[in-house]
Each structure stands twice: as C-alpha cells, then as structure tokens.
C-alpha cells in the first residue's frame, strides 16, 4: 500500500512547526479573577483577554445565568428551528437589534459560525468576495467555503478594494472587513468602504467583534461610531465573547436579510441553539455595556496612559486607538522570549506569531480592559522597559 497516512502527515506538520519555533501550546487557566488569572499555580496579571469592559465575572451576569438555569435548565435541547429557540434568545435578539440600530438580529453559537453561515447563505460560485488582507481567519474561511472567488486587498487600502471590485464588474459582490482588526487594533476606513460599496453596488459586511461595546457613545460599535446606518452596512456581525464577556455571536440587518439567513445559513440551521441561560447572561451584559459608560471611559483612559508611556519608552507601538495595543517585534522567537520574560515577572501576554499574523510581523498582543487599574498599566510599562534594556523588545 502506498496510501499516505493522514495522522503521520499531521505529525510531520507539527514537527515542522516545532522546528520553526512556531509550535502552539495550550495553557490551562486554573482560576480567573478580574484581570488576574492563576496558571501553573502562579498568579499572573493578564493583558491578553478580550474582556474589554471587564464584564465576564460581573455579578449581574452570573446572577442572570444562575436564575435562568434554575428556571430553564442548561441546554437548549435542539436547534433553533426545532424547539431550541427560547424566550431568552428572542429577548437578546431584540435587544441587540435595537442597540445596533438594525431591524432584526439573529444569534449564532460562535462568531466563526456566524461568518461561515452568512457567506455560505449569501454567496454563490459565480460571485466575488472582496476582503482586507488582515481580516479574521473565519471571514476568509467563509468565502472559501461559499466557493466564490475570494479577492484580497492590501490592509485598509480603499483604492485596492475598488480595483478588486472593478475587476469583476458583472459579478454579485460582498465586501467584508473587520471593523476593528483583531491583531492590529486599528479601525477599518468604514465610511470610505461604505461609499465604495454604494458606487459599485456591492453589499458591505462588517465584523465588529472587537468594536461592539468598546466604540460608540453607548457601545454600539465601530459602524455606528463612523456614523453609518443599516443601509450603509447591510450586514453587521459581532461577537458576544469579547467586550460582553459571554460567548456566541449575532448578525444584524434588515428583516429580509435575517429571514434569508434563517432559511439558508447552514451553521444556524444545523446546530444546537446556545444555552438559554447564556442568552440571559448576555442580555444582562448588553444592559451594562449600554448604561455604564464609565467602563468605556476608563478603558480609553488606560489606552491613553499605555500609549503615552510606551511612546516615552520608545516601544514599537502600532497605530491603534482601541483596547488592542500590540507591540510589533517582528521575529517570532523575539516575541516568544518577550512573552516568557514577562511571565517570569507575573504578566500574561501571549506572543502572536505566523501564520496568525504575516511572516516577520510577530508581536505581543497586549489588550487593555476596564478591569485593569492605572497601576497595572504602569507596572506593565515598567516590565516592558526592563525587557527593552535587556534585549527582547
Ligand atoms: C474579528 C473576529 N471575528 C470573529 C471571531 C470569531 O468569534 P468567536 O470566537 O465567537 O468564534 C473573532 C475571534 O474570536 C474575531 O477576532
């Protein structure tokens, strides 16, 4: 037999990653308490979670989850279209639609599934999907799964996006971008991209996983902060596992879009609905994110403090106004060494290496949260300045 072994090939791939110093390692967090975690028996101050508003352990969320579980149990029991769609899901969808200024919203179990489902439902083989080169992996995977032509443009390059659209003038087209880029923290040129989509009759989709809760006067996200409405961005997707501190995702838009997704999005139809207690907890998180503006204000103050301090130290900051404040180190080994050195000093900051980011663009993906205090940021800056003197940064 000459048939290759799939498991041996997988093992060879892993060995190759190890040789290149790119092995991914799983870490168990034994306990989380605000921005602090315990791992390997050590207490570490985390600067790598996406819990931007510090809601993941808020007593209102925990209470809502417990009460709903007492009332209604844990699992939803089935897919939404069978008998899994509960009152808690419906209430959350209504609140999310209202918050984002859309007619309707539809829950998905994860952001990854939402993006796969939207693209598979909207796009056919003859269509084109135009995407920023730095879009999240699940947007890229979604277009590939849909079987359409995927055309990528240089990061945030509106003219590049225009060229890609014009190359296929007769094809139905979706232009998709992260609202806030997950590894860089910068905000897409949403107004210009929306205008381009209008001119080119393309449908505009924004994945606002890292903007919802953080940007906009009431946390409505990057699209609203850019002054754009449903007609400008007909397909809005965001996740519930980041600033809202829960898990899951939603797509918001016109009633026609949502009805169409219910009919056709396979990752909505053929999967178990999220636990209703999680939907109840998420609704509590939405209410807090809307009403407690101090969380966004505190986060902004911490971002400003970090950027000022890092600039004074001459650290390789990236042009990000959001909670994601990466330090670009370039070399994967340097990023890993910096992460390990920080851990020695009691900080958890993950190194992000290729292929998650492009070759030569390894970084420390530092994230800030309303759960941090000014003194936490100062301590991190002090540790980074020590590293700088010692080499890796
Ligand atoms: C921009 C973006 N979209 C989608 C996702 C996927 O969301 P989820 O974690 O809910 O699958 C992520 C990260 O997780 C993300 O950063």
From TrEMBL:
InterPro entries the UniProt entry points to: Aminotrans_II_pyridoxalP_BS, Aminotransferase_I/II_large, AON_synthase_class-II, AONS_Archaea/Proteobacteria, AONS_Proteobacteria, PyrdxlP-dep_Trfase, PyrdxlP-dep_Trfase_major, PyrdxlP-dep_Trfase_small
Binding annotation for substrate: 24, 136, 356
Binding-site positions, pyridoxal 5'-phosphate: 111-112, 182, 210, 239
Entry EC no(s): 2.3.1.47
Location of the Aminotransferase class I/classII large domain: 44-384
Keywords of this entry: Acyltransferase, Biotin biosynthesis, Pyridoxal phosphate, Transferase
Enzyme class label: transferase
MF-aspect GO terms: 8-amino-7-oxononanoate synthase activity
Metabolic or biological pathway: Cofactor biosynthesis; biotin biosynthesis
Residue numbers of N6-(pyridoxal phosphate)lysine PTMs: 242
Catalytic activity of the protein: 6-carboxyhexanoyl-[ACP] + L-alanine + H(+) = (8S)-8-amino-7-oxononanoate + holo-[ACP] + CO2
PROSITE patterns, per the entry: AA_TRANSFER_CLASS_2
Cofactor: pyridoxal 5'-phosphate
Pfam families, per database record: Aminotran_1_2
Protein family per UniProt: Belongs to the class-II pyridoxal-phosphate-dependent aminotransferase family. BioF subfamily.
Subunit relationships: Homodimer.
PANTHER family: 8-AMINO-7-OXONONANOATE SYNTHASE (PTHR13693:SF100), CLASS II AMINOTRANSFERASE/8-AMINO-7-OXONONANOATE SYNTHASE (PTHR13693)
Function: Catalyzes the decarboxylative condensation of pimeloyl-[acyl-carrier protein] and L-alanine to produce 8-amino-7-oxononanoate (AON), [acyl-carrier protein], and carbon dioxide.
Annotated protein name in UniProt: 8-amino-7-oxononanoate synthase
Organism: Dyella japonica
């Amino acid at each position: 037999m000459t048939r290759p072994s799939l498991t041996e090939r997988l093992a060879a791939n892993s060995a190759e990653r190890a040789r290149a110093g790119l092995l991914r390692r799983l870490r168990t967090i034994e306990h989380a308490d605000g921005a602090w975690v315990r791992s390997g028996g050590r207490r570490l101050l985390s600067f790598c979670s996406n819990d931007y508003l510090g809601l993941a352990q808020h007593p209102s969320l925990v209470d809502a989850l417990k009460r709903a579980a007492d009332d209604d149990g844990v699992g939803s029991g089935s897919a939404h279209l069978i008998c899994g769609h509960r009152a808690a899901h419906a209430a959350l969808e209504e609140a999310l639609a209202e918050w984002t200024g859309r007619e309707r919203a539809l829950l998905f179990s994860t952001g990854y599934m939402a993006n796969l489902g939207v693209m598979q439902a909207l796009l056919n083989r003859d269509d084109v999907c135009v995407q920023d080169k730095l879009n999240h992996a699940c947007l890229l995977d979604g277009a590939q799964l849909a079987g359409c032509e995927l055309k990528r443009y240089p990061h945030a390059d509106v003219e590049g996006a225009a060229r890609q659209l014009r190359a296929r003038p007769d094809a139905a087209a979706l232009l998709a971008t992260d609202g806030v880029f997950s590894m860089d923290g910068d905000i897409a040129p949403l107004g210009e991209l929306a205008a381009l989509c209008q001119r080119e009759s393309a449908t505009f989709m924004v994945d606002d996983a890292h903007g919802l809760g953080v940007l906009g006067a009431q946390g409505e996200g990057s699209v609203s902060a850019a002054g754009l409405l449903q007609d400008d961005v007909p397909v809005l997707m965001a996740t519930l596992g980041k600033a809202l501190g829960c898990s899951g995702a939603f797509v918001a838009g016109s009633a026609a879009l949502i009805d169409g997704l219910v009919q056709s999005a396979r990752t909505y139809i053929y999967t178990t609905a999220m636990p209703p207690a999680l939907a109840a907890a998420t609704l509590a998180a939405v209410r807090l994110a809307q009403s407690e503006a101090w969380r966004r204000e505190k986060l902004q103050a911490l971002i400003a403090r970090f950027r000022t301090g890092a600039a004074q130290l001459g650290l390789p900051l990236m042009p990000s106004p959001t909670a994601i404040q990466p330090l670009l180190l370039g070399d994967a080994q340097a990023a890993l060494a910096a992460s390990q050195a920080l851990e020695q000093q009691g900080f958890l900051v993950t190194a992000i290496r290729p292929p998650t980011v492009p070759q030569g663009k390894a970084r420390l993906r530092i994230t800030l949260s309303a759960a941090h205090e000014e003194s936490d940021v100062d301590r991190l800056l002090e540790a980074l300045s020590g590293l700088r003197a010692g080499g890796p940064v």
